[in-house]
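The records we work with from here on pair a chain with its fold. Taken together, the tokens spell out the fold as the letters spell out the chain. To see the layout at work, look at the sequence and tokens printed below.
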Amino acid sequence: MTTTGTGYDRDFLGLSIAPPAGVDGDGDLLQLPGGGTELTYTHFSVALHRGRRLARWVAWNIDGGTRWDGDDIPRKGLRFRTDSRIPVTAQIGDELYRDNPLDRGHLARRADLLWGPRAEAEAANRDSFFFPNITPQMDTFNQSGKDGVWGRLENALLATTGVGRISVFAGPVFADDDPVYRDVPIPLSYYKVLVYRDGLWQTEQAPNGELQARAFLLTQTLSGLRTVSPLDEFVTDELTLGALTERVGLRFDPALTATAADRRTAVASGGSRRIRDLADVRW
């Protein structure tokens, strides 16, 4: 089974916002058999790091006005699976996750993708389980029901600001000294960038409000992969996009680095600040 999804929509917010690109080019990305580097799914796209066999970036769109509840479109019966459009050897599968506390962690969250007409939302539900969208995360990192800030950022933005649509970029941060487990270097940090426009969307054709972008970085502890890591060992920071670029080696669309929200973070924090609770985020 494969997907017919058209992927991340650059024009989703009423102006074109490109996905991330490598500071030194995209030479570290997996080249697809048909050309290009972007694997497209329903409501999201993935670019894989060819050496690490995990996503370099995932880009997705969220329409808060047409989202389905996860109970209405359940995950029951869906299995994680490799994508047949690329070699099995280019993606990490179940061999990493068996018999340990590592979750098969969605980068583009399943709940974020369940929007639009039901058939489209169901296709996105299925697509979210392809391994290119999955990374090794400790279970307390990945399960937002355990009150982690990271898993609730998108929900908080939709609930507290009147924003109807969000575009999101996320992925692991690769380091040369990442701990190796079952011959796979496990990322210790993950980034997430939320892009939105202030104010309400009256219609899909009539966006309003100033473009905003907020960048976050989470560091997880692996605790030797012997026990479940306590939540308080996870650290979430808000960063400027400039600081994030230096950390992850990715360039973000210039329209995002010019946003007022990014400037406010720079002035208030000198580049980054600790987020201990969702109330700490000033949307």
Remarks:
- The chain has seven helices and 14 strands.
- The chain has one domain: 21-280.
